[in-house]
Design goal:
Blueprint lengths: L1 H27 L13 E4 L1 H14 L9 E3 L2 H13 L5 E8 L5 E8 L8 E10 L4 E3 L12
Antiparallel strand pairs: 1-5, 2-6, 3-4, 4-5
Length: 150
């Protein structure tokens, strides 16, 4: 009787272990093909959309003729960057382009960049647009009382 109980417990342990190993292996090698949108203010866009939004921004852009002290990024830009880092774990960095969407809103066009060449190459298989109310160059989007710039 004890022998049957021992065999039953051993068989249950082995079957459970094999099922656990199988499930761990299954989840280790599967990933979602499209990561979920990281925020309602961050959307995946296509290359043609990115080109259109970039050209919209160029039409109203004013030339910069002074020293650039820095760049201000919106929280939504960082959310998109975090999502790109998940999609491209070996990326070298990010590139943020100015854009204006079809409704006239200022957006950031955010792409990952790789290590190709001195400046890297845009990885355009996944492009995000992010609603960016605070994105821009400093000046004019600066903290005028910052101890860093004084």
């Amino acid at each position: 009787m004890k022998r049957k109980k021992f065999l039953w417990m051993s068989a249950t342990f082995v079957a459970g272990s094999l099922a656990g190993i199988f499930l761990m292996g299954l989840f280790s090698f599967t990933s979602p093909s499209n990561p979920p949108n990281p925020s309602p203010a961050v959307n995946t866009i296509t290359v043609p959309q990115a080109i259109s939004y970039f050209k919209n921004a160029l039409r109203v852009a004013t030339p910069c003729s002074g020293v650039i002290n820095g760049v201000t990024l919106d929280k939504n830009d960082l959310t998109a960057m975090s999502s790109l880092l998940t999609t491209f774990p070996n990326l070298a960095g990010f590139r943020v382009y100015n854009g204006i969407d079809d409704s006239g809103a200022k957006i950031a066009i955010i792409v990952a960049i790789d290590n190709n060449g001195a400046n890297g190459t845009d990885l355009t298989t996944t492009i995000y647009s992010a609603t960016s109310t605070r994105m821009g160059l400093c000046p004019p989007i600066c903290d005028q009382s910052s101890p860093i710039t004084h």
